[in-house]
Write a structure and sequence with these properties.
By secondary structure, this protein is α/β, with parallel strands linked by helices. Helices cover 35% and strands 21% of the residues. A hairpin with a 5-residue loop joins β10 and β11.
């Protein structure tokens, strides 16, 4: 290589990419993202193939891997708008069945050269076409020909690409979107969130689901401008990013449902109780009407604190449950590195209630300064009261339930009676005292309920993020330098670096006088 640069091969799935050790744009943590995308696209491609050939799943069972890596004239077309090294496109070509064409695009000339080398190395020139263009221009130029799937995996916010993406997808096409700017989506900068996503984010324990629902409402808003609407297949919050898979359909009448699929979030600044207020409502006999509101008084009825308002967020389903169950079955037949975690996360998804947002167990008990019960006991309290409860895949201590906030606080009060808080230490105007001194509306029993421990938990599935690896995180923008052989983290390597520097420069091995004075 020129300039003494050395080249090495990184393998992931069935793909191999050639990279320069000096400038490696590869994040191993994102393998979960890519594995999930391969599995979802495989199902979509198989569905289109079966519809085209009129083959029914019940009579002919097709193993997706038998058809991958071969060009199919009636297969799907895929655009990877921001391709970098081309790894994702190459994996799609070699692992997704029934593919006709994949366009691997990048605006960087160096990236496109890398894509070309990797396409040749993997011998998939007939399936993957490199493209050197602005991603938005590629999408706008294909508004008539259209793609079956568009994959957007940018560094940060995907907003600028969504207008083109919703226009260049075929009817029923799949849009795959990643967002990594979680600080913005999770409430650290609500004004920036409004600029980028058209919604105000909240600092909430349910921030990861709020992030998903903000992104979905943003996609729905872009689609609605062109008489199109979205149907989410799967929306997940994992690691340091969110990833959504939505189908885009054309239908002006269905677009009107957006008002009933969107709503505002009211969160108390004291006890953090959540209330949802839809922007519109469907009439039983058809048509739509405006809701009456607001759903809360000026002060919270539980603790007399004021509310923060966020949104709008998507209130419709996050997941298509039949699709997710089919996805789990297909992953079990595929050879994916992260399949164990994929199956665990997706099983939690199948158990999720279709209700917006969740509470977090230890935070609920922290608000009233009380010992935290086991998850099974708290869930049993809600189930015995006649309500449904589930985990959210976005948080290991989540309480997702159709019980109103009144009942949730009834469960908290019932537990506090058994394990009393030190009320003398609670302030007179504290949310804790206001909640604990209020009469309960329901009798709560903590007797073990048969559904309190869900199957995914009983089976000890890998449901949530394990301890981070050395290179865990989003990485840097397109100039990421990663030494894959390095076993210690950058943070650990940088500890005491200034002290080491002084020791190296001082002849006696002791810091200079100025440094000595600063340490006294």
């Amino acid at each position: 290589m020129e300039g003494g640069e050395t080249q090495k091969i990184i393998k992931e799935g069935k793909a191999e990419i050639l990279v320069l050790e000096k400038n490696v744009f590869y994040n191993p943590v994102q393998e979960f993202n890519r594995d999930l995308s391969v599995a979802v696209l495989s199902l979509i491609a198989k569905e289109k193939h079966e519809n085209f050939t009129a083959i029914k799943t019940e009579t002919v069972k097709i193993n997706p891997s038998d058809q991958a890596g071969v060009k199919h004239e009636n297969g799907i077309t895929i655009l990877e708008a921001l391709s970098a090294t081309g790894l994702r496109s190459i994996r799609y070509a070699k692992e997704v069945p029934y593919v006709r064409q994949i366009i691997a695009n990048d605006i960087s000339a160096k990236a496109v050269e890398s894509i070309k080398r990797n396409i040749q190395h993997n011998k998939i020139e007939d399936l993957v076409t490199p493209s050197h263009e602005d991603a938005t221009m590629v999408m706008y130029q294909n508004r008539k020909t259209r793609f079956d799937a568009v994959d957007l995996d940018p560094y940060g916010c995907p907003s600028i690409f969504l207008d083109g993406a919703v226009q260049c997808l075929d009817n029923g096409g799949l849009l795959l979107v990643t967002a990594t700017d979680m600080a913005v989506l999770a409430g650290n900068s609500p004004e920036t969130c409004f600029v980028k996503y058209g919604a105000v984010s909240l600092k909430s324990k349910a921030c990861h689901e709020i992030a998903l629902r903000i992104l979905l409402q943003h996609i729905a808003a872009h689609a609605g401008r062109y008489g199109r609407y979205i149907v989410p297949l799967l929306a997940v919050s994992v690691d340091f990013y969110i990833r959504v898979f939505v189908r885009i359909y054309t239908g002006q009448v269905k677009c009107k449902e957006n008002t009933s699929n969107l709503g505002m979030v009211y969160q108390c600044t004291g006890c953090e109780s959540i209330m949802i207020h839809p922007l519109g409502m469907k009439k039983l006999n058809g048509g739509y009407k405006l809701p009456m509101g607001p759903p809360v008084d000026q002060l919270c009825k539980f603790c007399q604190y004021k509310h923060h308002i966020g949104g709008p967020i998507w209130l419709g389903p996050l997941h298509d449950q039949p699709f997710v169950r089919e996805l789990i079955d297909s992953i079990e037949t595929m050879n994916l590195t992260t399949s164990k975690r994929l199956i665990g996360v997706l099983n939690v998804v199948t158990e999720e209630l279709d209700t917006p947002l969740y509470y977090v167990l230890d935070r609920l008990m922290s608000i009233v300064r009380c010992d935290t019960p086991s998850m099974v006991k708290f869930r049993s309290g809600l189930l015995n009261a006649g309500y449904n409860v589930s985990f959210s895949h976005a948080h290991r201590l989540s309480i997702k339930t159709d019980a109103p906030a009144e009942v949730i606080w009834d469960v908290v009060r019932a537990w506090e009676k058994i394990h009393p808080a030190k009320r003398e230490k609670l302030g007179k105007e504290s949310p804790a005292l206001a909640i604990l001194t209020t009469e309960s509306t329901k009798e709560i029993s903590f007797d073990l309920h048969s559904e309190a421990n869900p199957e995914s938990r009983r089976m000890h599935m890998q449901r949530f993020q394990v301890n981070p690896t050395v290179n865990w995180g989003p990485g840097a923008r397109s100039t990421t330098i990663i030494d894959l052989s390095e076993k210690t983290s950058k943070r650990a390597r940088n500890q005491n670096k200034h002290k080491k520097k002084f020791e190296e420069t001082s002849p006696s091995g002791s810091p200079p006088l100025k440094q000595q004075k600063s340490n006294v």
